[in-house]
Amino acid sequence: MAAISFLGDLLQTISDRGRDLISFGRGDLARTASAADLAKLCEDLISRRGEASGVALARLVLERYAALPLDERLAFLGLVADEFDADHAAVEEAITAYRAQPSRTRLGVLHEAAEPRSQELIRRLNLARGGTLALVRMREDLFVLRKRLKDQGAAPATLDAVDSLDSDFEHLFASWFNRGFLVLRHIDWSTPADILEKIIRYEAVHEIADWDELRRRIEPPDRRCFAFFHPALLDEPLIFVEVALTTAIAPAIQPILAHERETIPARAATTAIFYSISNCQKGLAGVTFGNFLIKQVVEDLAREIPSLKTFVTLSPVPGFRTWLDRERRADAPQGLTREDVDTLRALDGDAWRHDKAACEAVRRAMLPAAAAYFLRAKNPRGRPLDPVARFHLGNGARLERMNFLGDTSKNGMRQSYGLMVNYLYDLSAIEKNHETYANLGTVAASSTVSRELRTNLPPPRAVVLAEAE
Prior knowledge:
CATH architecture of the largest domain: Up-down Bundle
CATH superfamily of the largest domain: Malonyl-CoA decarboxylase, oligemerization domain
Structural class: alpha+beta
CATH topology of the largest domain: Butyryl-CoA Dehydrogenase, subunit A, domain 3
Number of helices: 21
Shape: globular
């Protein structure tokens, strides 16, 4: 940490001296800036060769960008998308030269010419102290811009330019946030309060109501929380996972989150349940950390607590309700018998949950439908519809168990009629499961899940669900 602070102070010194060199002072920040003004500063930034002046100018651009109202920030990003493309004449010249005499040197020239200037701009903006986090926030604004343009029916060329700029961010972030740079930290009650506050704020699966609830999740001996951090974002978790240490695979989330529950010593636990995985930085969408996080946490827990033999998740199913509602109202429902459709009409109300016989009937109809959703329903790319399923299956997990009414919270009922699932991370089978899923699209599933599948029905159609994608 001290070394990082030293480097930050060094960059600050370079930036301050650079301001003197390019005659920019604090008073300049107070001037009213516009998107066009900022774009001109960016042109100046990528044309400079001096390190000190470049750091200072990058800092000034980011400060002015942050001071702009949202509409001006979006206008600036639109200008960058339009005006900071590759030099097409240079690309054509490099292509001609390579065709005339192919060589690695000329291929390198072509590669350099084909790179959009926006990539170099992003790199140079990252020179400023705090530049990495500022760029992550800038990409969040880019998502807002793209949605606005899409809602307004913008021309395909405009959307393509914005998508290209987003690809530049994602490409560079994938390098900057390489696993080798990430640091895993155990989050406990002694963790600094500003980080704990962010854990509360960023929890995306099971809301943390207050500090008392946070304490119940991280302080007891049978609870753990781990987060990935990056040296450039010291106090900003990238992703975190909450773990319950138990003696069996849990079928429901409410007992895990209960205010009053019996705790067990860590050494008595045989099962580690990953019950919440939250990505914290929207601007890092598309940059995968979760697979590394789970694998490292499994390794760390296995070392710390040798009694642990089973590693599973207790996961939400965010696309299931949308899929089930569409299929049970379709003329030719997929994955459901007509008797199932009739039974599941009870889902249009809430009375079934309070009637034992009706609840059991819904369970018998819903679980086969859920098996079809996981094992047979595919998107156009041949992958499961559910995003959480794609994540865990892609990491080599096995779909172990489907849990009827595993989450009876308002959110759980809204997204999946309460259905939750356990994905099992069997260390001896992870590589095999990953390879068969990646190469063949095969979903590794336990016999318990497979037995629920009705075999006399046609396979579901390939569809795209907006909220599941």
